[in-house]
């Protein structure tokens, strides 16, 4: 019996050993969002970041506890902290200072992202030249172009100065060496995706490389109080390329936007530790450089005070900045079974909704007509407050009757035909009054008593039918002699909308 028991114990010992010596399976965690998985994958299943999943240490296999070290500088009461180092220094470009919150803070790291060819390098070269003329030493590191190409652009935009130093480098160690040698008062790196570190595997622009390069440059900027601007690339969907942690590491994230066929460029901050994130800077990009636009509304108006049929002016809000935009509409007889609905600068789905409300609630017969709606100057109007302007411009084009001269309108159109209030109506009207408009049409309840400008006659409307009746100027003899576009049509308020 003892031999049998020993045999059974010997046979059971390997299984029991396997059970007791079983080691936990390794886990993998995403460095971007913290998502965990039991096996390694190249792309995170939560945030969809590439190359961010790495093996995490198991129980007892983590790094040793960090030893306690003596602080080099003692903690101070918050009232004794020197705030002069945290004050912004103007860059000399007012529109950029508006977005940054007054300028560049010493030691701050700004990430400027935008599509290729939008004008990022031109803007930063102009900013660097202005800082150099102010007596500061500026180091401009270019990794995308040669030094000669940057010199030619600098001559074209008049950005050549002895205090502006240029280096064409793609190695992180060499860039840090230039910083040690020059000791600049401002650093510009164009771009962070072109710099690579020899200590990290992978090509330039990879996730690990971008993270290492950004961390090294941020450490230098914080240690020496150097304001640093990093140029970043964007992906196909317009988001910043690279790991999401890059946006968390920097102090300010700015988006540089603009259409290729338009001279207008917009800079807006999506993250700002030193200022607001609802400001917008407007720039005019031309062959001679980039210029800030303190009054960009003129780019979006063609005949602001002398309208023709099919045009209407509204005021949109870009952040906290009111911008006047002119919306033009053309209604033409269609020979197609499905008439066209074409837009430029206006959301096509909003146009389809406005046309449906016009036809159902007001009685405008637009089913057999092509409708084209566009903005002036390349402006992009996506705010719902422009619905009323789109509706009145379409009605004006359909009736071939201009709106009242000097009038600006704003309001969101609901599916029931009501005009909903908009935010910032007083600020919008102040901008319209400054541009010379004398009439305004706003939703009922948008303004408090005394908020309307003294030089402007403001009309409040409750629904789209009322807005249509009050917007068009009456026909006169000259208007009657003017040829209409297409067959003679009755006035909209005389059209029977059908049985109730």
UniProtKB/TrEMBL annotation:
<keyword id="KW-0067">ATP-binding</keyword>
<dbReference type="Pfam" id="PF18073">
    <property type="entry name" value="Zn_ribbon_LapB"/>
</dbReference>
<dbReference type="Pfam" id="PF13481">
    <property type="entry name" value="AAA_25"/>
</dbReference>
<feature type="region of interest" description="Disordered">
    <location>
        <begin position="473"/>
        <end position="500"/>
    </location>
</feature>
<comment type="function">
    <text>DNA-dependent ATPase involved in processing of recombination intermediates, plays a role in repairing DNA breaks. Stimulates the branch migration of RecA-mediated strand transfer reactions, allowing the 3' invading strand to extend heteroduplex DNA faster. Binds ssDNA in the presence of ADP but not other nucleotides, has ATPase activity that is stimulated by ssDNA and various branched DNA structures, but inhibited by SSB. Does not have RecA's homology-searching function.</text>
</comment>
<dbReference type="InterPro" id="IPR014721">
    <property type="entry name" value="Ribsml_uS5_D2-typ_fold_subgr"/>
</dbReference>
<keyword id="KW-0346">Stress response</keyword>
<dbReference type="InterPro" id="IPR027417">
    <property type="entry name" value="P-loop_NTPase"/>
</dbReference>
<comment type="similarity">
    <text>Belongs to the RecA family. RadA subfamily.</text>
</comment>
<dbReference type="GO" id="GO:0003684">
    <property type="term" value="F:damaged DNA binding"/>
</dbReference>
<keyword id="KW-0238">DNA-binding</keyword>
<dbReference type="GO" id="GO:0005829">
    <property type="term" value="C:cytosol"/>
</dbReference>
<comment type="function">
    <text>Plays a role in repairing double-strand DNA breaks, probably involving stabilizing or processing branched DNA or blocked replication forks.</text>
</comment>
<keyword id="KW-0234">DNA repair</keyword>
<feature type="region of interest" description="Lon-protease-like">
    <location>
        <begin position="370"/>
        <end position="500"/>
    </location>
</feature>
<keyword id="KW-0863">Zinc-finger</keyword>
<dbReference type="GO" id="GO:0140664">
    <property type="term" value="F:ATP-dependent DNA damage sensor activity"/>
</dbReference>
<dbReference type="InterPro" id="IPR041166">
    <property type="entry name" value="Rubredoxin_2"/>
</dbReference>
<feature type="compositionally biased region" description="Low complexity">
    <location>
        <begin position="480"/>
        <end position="489"/>
    </location>
</feature>
<keyword id="KW-0862">Zinc</keyword>
<dbReference type="GO" id="GO:0016787">
    <property type="term" value="F:hydrolase activity"/>
</dbReference>
<dbReference type="InterPro" id="IPR003593">
    <property type="entry name" value="AAA+_ATPase"/>
</dbReference>
<keyword id="KW-0479">Metal-binding</keyword>
<feature type="region of interest" description="Disordered">
    <location>
        <begin position="1"/>
        <end position="25"/>
    </location>
</feature>
<keyword id="KW-0547">Nucleotide-binding</keyword>
<dbReference type="InterPro" id="IPR004504">
    <property type="entry name" value="DNA_repair_RadA"/>
</dbReference>
<feature type="binding site">
    <location>
        <begin position="114"/>
        <end position="121"/>
    </location>
    <ligand>
        <name>ATP</name>
    </ligand>
</feature>
<dbReference type="GO" id="GO:0005524">
    <property type="term" value="F:ATP binding"/>
</dbReference>
<feature type="short sequence motif" description="RadA KNRFG motif">
    <location>
        <begin position="271"/>
        <end position="275"/>
    </location>
</feature>
<feature type="domain" description="RecA family profile 1">
    <location>
        <begin position="85"/>
        <end position="234"/>
    </location>
</feature>
<dbReference type="Pfam" id="PF13541">
    <property type="entry name" value="ChlI"/>
</dbReference>
<protein>
    <recommendedName>
        <fullName>DNA repair protein RadA</fullName>
    </recommendedName>
</protein>
<dbReference type="InterPro" id="IPR020588">
    <property type="entry name" value="RecA_ATP-bd"/>
</dbReference>
<keyword id="KW-0227">DNA damage</keyword>
<dbReference type="InterPro" id="IPR020568">
    <property type="entry name" value="Ribosomal_Su5_D2-typ_SF"/>
</dbReference>
<dbReference type="GO" id="GO:0008270">
    <property type="term" value="F:zinc ion binding"/>
</dbReference>
<keyword id="KW-0378">Hydrolase</keyword>
<dbReference type="GO" id="GO:0000725">
    <property type="term" value="P:recombinational repair"/>
</dbReference>
């Amino acid at each position: 019996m003892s031999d049998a028991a020993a045999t059974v114990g010997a046979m059971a010992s390997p299984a029991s050993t396997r059970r007791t010596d079983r080691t936990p399976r390794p886990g993998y965690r995403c460095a971007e969002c913290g998502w965990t998985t039991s096996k390694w994958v190249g792309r995170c299943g939560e945030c969809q970041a590439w190359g961010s999943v790495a093996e995490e240490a198991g129980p007892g296999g983590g790094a040793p506890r960090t030893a306690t070290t003596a602080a080099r500088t003692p903690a101070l009461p918050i009232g004794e902290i020197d705030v002069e180092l945290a004050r912004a220094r103007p860059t000399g470009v007012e529109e950029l200072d508006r977005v940054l919150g007054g300028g560049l803070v010493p030691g701050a790291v700004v990430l400027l992202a935008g599509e290729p060819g939008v004008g990022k390098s031109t803007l930063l070269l102009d900013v660097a030249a202005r800082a150099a003329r102010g007596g500061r030493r500026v180091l401009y590191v270019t990794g995308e172009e040669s030094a000669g190409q940057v010199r030619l652009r600098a001559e074209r935009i008049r950005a050549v100065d002895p205090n502006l130093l240029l280096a064409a480098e793609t190695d992180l160690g060499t860039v840090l060496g230039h910083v040690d040698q020059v000791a600049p008062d401002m650093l510009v790196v164009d771009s962070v995706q072109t710099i690579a570190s020899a200590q990290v595997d992978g090509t330039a622009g990879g996730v690990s490389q971008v993270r290492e390069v950004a961390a090294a440059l941020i450490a230098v900027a914080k240690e020496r109080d150097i304001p640093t601007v990093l140029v970043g690339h964007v992906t196909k969907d317009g988001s910043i390329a690279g790991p999401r942690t890059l946006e968390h590491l920097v102090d300010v994230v700015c988006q540089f936007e603009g259409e290729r066929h338009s001279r207008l460029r917009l800079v807006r901050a999506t993250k700002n530790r030193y200022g607001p994130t609802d400001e917008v800077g407007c720039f005019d990009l031309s062959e001679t450089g980039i210029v800030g636009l303190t009054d960009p509304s003129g780019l979006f108006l063609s005949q602001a005070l002398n309208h023709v049929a099919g045009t209407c002016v509204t005021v949109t809000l870009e952040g906290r900045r009111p911008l006047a935009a002119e919306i033009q509409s053309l209604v033409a007889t269609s020979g197609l079974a499905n008439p066209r609905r074409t837009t430029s600068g206006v959301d096509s789905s909003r146009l389809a909704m406005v046309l449906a409300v016009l036809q159902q609630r007001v009685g405008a017969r637009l089913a057999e007509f092509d409708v084209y709606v566009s903005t002036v100057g390349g402006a992009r109007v996506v705010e719902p407050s422009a619905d009323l302007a789109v509706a009145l411009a379409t009605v004006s084009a359909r009736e071939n009757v201009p709106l009242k001269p000097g009038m600006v309108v704003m309001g969101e159109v609901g599916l029931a035909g009501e005009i909903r209030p908009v935010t910032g109506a007083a600020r919008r009207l102040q901008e319209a009054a400054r541009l010379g408009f004398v009439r305004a049409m706003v939703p009922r309840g948008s303004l408090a008593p005394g908020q309307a400008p003294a030089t402007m006659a403001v009309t409040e409307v409750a629904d789209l039918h009322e807005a249509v009746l009050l917007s068009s100027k009456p026909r006169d003899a000259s208007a009657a002699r003017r040829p209409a576009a297409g067959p003679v049509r009755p006035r909209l308020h005389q059209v029977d909308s059908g049985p109730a």
